[in-house]
Structures are given as C-alpha cells and as structure tokens.
Amino acid sequence: MKVLAQFKTIPNYVDFCLPELKSLIAMHNLDWREVFKHEFVQEGQENLTNNNDLINTSPYYPYMYHQNKKLNQKKQLLPISASEIRHTSFRRFPFVYLEFPNVEICQQIIQRSILIDVFIEIISEATNYEDIVKFADKEILFKHNQEDQKILFEVDPYNSHLTQQEIIDRIEIITESLNMRGKIDLKNPQKKFWIMERHVDPFTKQTDSSITNTLLDIYFGVEIGRSKSCTRISQKENQTNKYDLRQRAYLGPTSTDNILSFLMCNQGLTRSGDMILDPFVGSGSLIIPPSHFGAICFGGDLDPRVLHGFGVGRLNKKSQFYQKNEEYCKEMKPKIMLNFEQYELNKPNIIRMDCINTNLREVEIFDAIICDPPYGFRAMTRTAGKKEKKRNRKDKQSTNANTQEDEAQHEEDDQQTGSPLLKQTEQAKIVEEISNQMNGLDIEGKNTQPKNEEEEKKNNENGEERHSYAPTLTVSVDYIVNGLVRLANRVLAPGGRLVFLYPIEREHYNSTGIEKLNYPNFTLVDYSENPLSEKKSRILVTLQKNKSVKEFLEEAGYKNLDEMNEQNQFQNQTDQQQQQQQQQTQAQ
Ligand SMILES: C[S@@+](CC[C@H](N)C(=O)[O-])C[C@H]1O[C@@H](n2cnc3c(N)ncnc32)[C@H](O)[C@@H]1O
C-alpha cells in the first residue's frame, strides 16, 4: 500500500530521518529500495517531471538535488549505495511516499520511530483545493467515509501558518465538497483526516521576491499511524520525554541525549532478546533504549568514577525520582544502576575495562555495539598504560645531532593523532587540557598519587587503602576508532551493526571523507550529521560486520587482528594524504 510519511524536522536531527527509516525497514526484512520506489523516476519518464534539476535514469534514481556531482551526470547506471541517499534527495521532504506490504508493518514502524511524525493513506494530492476535490480517490474515500464514525480533521501547513478561520475554511471545503459523513469528535475520534500543505521555505521566499504564492502541494488523507514519541503527546505516554535527561536521576559528565540514544538504538536494529554492548558506557544512556526494547545490555568503561558516581558523575537533584527517593538514590551502588531502577528496566552487566585495548576472547556474541566514544570534545579518551615523561625538546635540539629528524618525526606523530576530519591542533589542545584535569585523581576525585616512593612505601606499610586506579594515557580519534573496529571484529556477530559517533569540524567535512574511511570487514550502512555548534559536528556512523573474524582474516591474509589494524591505519593515512594533496591541487 502507498502511504505518505511526514517527518519531524527537529533541526539537529534532520539528517537522521532517512537512515532511521531505512533501519526500521531493515528490521522488517524489507528492501528499502522497494519501499522508496514511488520516489524514483522510471526510465523514459524523465520528462513527466517539471523539475530540471532532477537526475533520473534508472528505476533506482530518486529525484535528487544531490551534492555528489558524479551522480548528476545523466544516464549513468550506478546502483545507489545506502549512504548516497540523503534527505535532500527527496523533492517533497519532509513528505515522502512509501510502499509497504500492509497496515500492520506501517504501524509497527511508526511506533518505533522517533523522527516520522505521521503515516497517511492519501485520498488526493494536488496543488489547489479544486483539484483536491476533483481527483479524490473514490475507493479509498469510500473505505474511510462511514456515517457511524467519529472523525477529526488535522490541518498542517508545513513551513507556513494558518489562522483559525483559514483552518475552518479548509475543513469546510473538504467536508462539503466530498460529502464527509462522519461525526466530528475532538476527544475520541475513530478516524483522523489530514489536510497537509507544503509551502515554500521562508528563507527561499525572502531571497526570491518573485515568489508570490507560497503554496506548493496539498495532501488529503487518512491517518494510519502516528508516532508515540511525538512532542505533541503528553509526557506520560511519550517514550522520548519519559527518558529526558532533565528527569534522569543519575547523570555523567557527557550523558548522551535521549533522542540520539533512541535513534542509535534503532540504527543498531535492536530487538527484544538481543545482546547489546556499549564499550564506553559512562552513565548508561545508550543502553537504556535497548533495555526499553527488551535487549540484554552490557557496558564497559575505563573510568570507575562515572560508574560509581564520584568526581565526574552526579545525582540529579532536580529529577522527581531523586526528590521522592533521596536516601535510596544516595545509597544505591553503583550509581549507574539507579537509572535502570528509575525506569524499571533490567539491570545491565557492567565491567570496568579498557575497551580500546581489549584482549577479550574472540566470541562473536553481540548483536550490536552502540557507543559514543570519548574523543576529547566532551570526554577524555584514555587507554591503560603509563605516560612517557615529556621530552624537553629544547634540550634535545642543542645536544643531539639527530634533533631535526626527531622533531620532524615528532611533528608527524602529532599530525597523525587526530581525526582525519578534525583539525589536529585543536583536538590535541582539548585532549591535553582534560588529561591534566584527570591525571592523578582517585575514585573520589581526590589526588591520591603518592608524591614520592617513600610516601608510597609508607602507605603500603600502614595497609592504607588507596582508591587510585591504573595509569592511563590519552589517545587519538583514529586510535579509538581502530580499537573499536578491532573490538567489534572480536565480539560482534557477523551481520551485526557497529553504531558510533565520530567528531568532525564542519569546515573540513564532506561526506566523501566518511565514505572513504576503510573499516576492515565492515560495510558502511549510513551516516548522519548531528551539528553541535557552528564549527563542530558529530557524525553517527552505522557499519555492518561482513563475515566472522576467522573467515575474514583467512581471506584477507592477515595473521591476526593486530596486523590487520596496523595495515588499515597505514592505508587510511595514505588515502587521507592523497585526498589532501588532491584538494590542494584542485584549489590551486
Ligand atoms: C562520551 S562518554 C560516554 C557517555 C555515555 N554514553 C553516557 O551516556 O554517559 C565516553 C566514556 O568512555 C570512557 N572511556 C574513556 N576511555 C575509555 C577506554 N579506553 N575504555 C573504556 N571506556 C573509556 C569515559 O570514562 C567515558 O565515560
């Protein structure tokens, strides 16, 4: 059946709309190309469309205003990869036509979705109200237009505003001209009819004064599903509001926001009974949605303070749960479990470990790994190990004959520590700052590092308990992502998804950079940009594991994962350098 979806255009998550829908489609074992088929232009029908910007050759070419120039060449029969289709691809976004096998699937998908607002079965679509009445589909109208039914009309002018009188006028045109027979009931309607208008983006209108009539399309239809997590529904029923961080009893320094946590859970195709791992679990925000859907959750974190609620984590005194259960909240150990108590969810299995450098056995048991790694934007990236004493570069320069070479090597090492898409110096600065703050703090946030050997000896003799934890080192974005892929190769089931956030500087970002990153034994399923500020963003990357690690290593000719990691790191750096060189040559 053909349905019209209207997406919620939450500014920071617009780019997540299609990847989320595609994941929900995959959860129902449907091919997303089939579901989106109404948005593709059939070969030979190019001229039926009145938009000159469209590229439309094969059945799998959507109407698009694509950023990828390569695809703008006509008659180029390239299959569209999952990541090439963006929200901007659709000429009517946030309205998109979809094809589903039945109503039940539509309803299951919309109940789970965060970003689809409503699904509508269309009775008619036109650019003016006269045509809406004239071209109404009699069969669909007859099916829904019953005398004994309580009905309601919703009027939604996307990108515009209507007065109360204008809304009433529109409802009257439809009810009178199409002889709508149901009785209006505002409180308990059995059927909801939608009149939707799509208007020109106000920004375009401002810049193009020749536009006089802003109305682009009108859609009239019947609601067949509405998102539960819609902001218009009361807080009690609303799953994303219920999990709002402002009402959460225990918060870490970088608790992932609840909309993003639910979106990441959907990207991970999380189902009831799945085993989900967050190797950078912090206060547990990312395993709350999988727990909500009945998954068995596991978390790891190197920093015990965030798990226990000392130093970096805190009880949220503003949350109602805390206010009602103050004593209980204070006593609860470890504090991360408090959030699961609050939401009455199964408690996760938490261990303290270095997930970047893990030597976990190769047991590919997890259905998804979902995480927000600590890149240094908001949290510190660390790995177990001892910090080398800082070199005194000036001294070295004056005494050592190889200083220049050393310095060049050092510079090169520094260059290689950042994200390929993040400006190196900026990241190094943040990393260093946070590193200094964290060094030498104990589980209670106090500095308990013995000042000297004597003090340490004295402490040991007195049998004094010290809460210090293993020394840690600060590491780079590449290092974390490689570690994460290595971990996923060890413990993620073949076909399982690795969903993680990746920091970028907007100025330097282009989607091809992400598409070119090579994750051995993984296929890029999708990526979406979540802007954090004018300059910084993070990309939600969704990868899918191809083969079992044994099979992959054998085929690729690597002895083990470490060898694979080293070579891959080198390959990524070479690709990056080539890309930079190409960009420089193009700029010249
Ligand atoms: C961005 S935070 C994750 C926040 C988490 N999603 C939450 O909702 O609280 C990253 C976490 O990774 C932890 N971490 C840093 N380095 C680690 C490592 N090598 N292994 C495991 N955890 C690490 C930090 O202690 C921090 O809690």
From TrEMBL:
<feature type="region of interest" description="Disordered">
    <location>
        <begin position="436"/>
        <end position="467"/>
    </location>
</feature>
<keyword id="KW-0489">Methyltransferase</keyword>
<dbReference type="GO" id="GO:0008168">
    <property type="term" value="F:methyltransferase activity"/>
</dbReference>
<dbReference type="InterPro" id="IPR002052">
    <property type="entry name" value="DNA_methylase_N6_adenine_CS"/>
</dbReference>
<dbReference type="Pfam" id="PF01170">
    <property type="entry name" value="UPF0020"/>
</dbReference>
<dbReference type="GO" id="GO:0003676">
    <property type="term" value="F:nucleic acid binding"/>
</dbReference>
<dbReference type="GO" id="GO:0005737">
    <property type="term" value="C:cytoplasm"/>
</dbReference>
<keyword id="KW-0808">Transferase</keyword>
<feature type="domain" description="Ribosomal RNA large subunit methyltransferase K/L-like methyltransferase">
    <location>
        <begin position="248"/>
        <end position="385"/>
    </location>
</feature>
<feature type="compositionally biased region" description="Basic and acidic residues">
    <location>
        <begin position="451"/>
        <end position="467"/>
    </location>
</feature>
<feature type="domain" description="tRNA (guanine(10)-N(2))-methyltransferase TRMT11 N-terminal">
    <location>
        <begin position="92"/>
        <end position="227"/>
    </location>
</feature>
<dbReference type="Pfam" id="PF25904">
    <property type="entry name" value="Tmrp11_N"/>
</dbReference>
<dbReference type="InterPro" id="IPR029063">
    <property type="entry name" value="SAM-dependent_MTases_sf"/>
</dbReference>
<feature type="compositionally biased region" description="Acidic residues">
    <location>
        <begin position="404"/>
        <end position="415"/>
    </location>
</feature>
<dbReference type="InterPro" id="IPR000241">
    <property type="entry name" value="RlmKL-like_Mtase"/>
</dbReference>
<dbReference type="GO" id="GO:0043527">
    <property type="term" value="C:tRNA methyltransferase complex"/>
</dbReference>
<feature type="region of interest" description="Disordered">
    <location>
        <begin position="382"/>
        <end position="422"/>
    </location>
</feature>
<feature type="compositionally biased region" description="Low complexity">
    <location>
        <begin position="567"/>
        <end position="588"/>
    </location>
</feature>
<feature type="region of interest" description="Disordered">
    <location>
        <begin position="561"/>
        <end position="588"/>
    </location>
</feature>
<dbReference type="InterPro" id="IPR059073">
    <property type="entry name" value="TRMT11_N"/>
</dbReference>
<protein>
    <submittedName>
        <fullName>Methyltransferase domain protein</fullName>
    </submittedName>
</protein>
<dbReference type="GO" id="GO:0032259">
    <property type="term" value="P:methylation"/>
</dbReference>
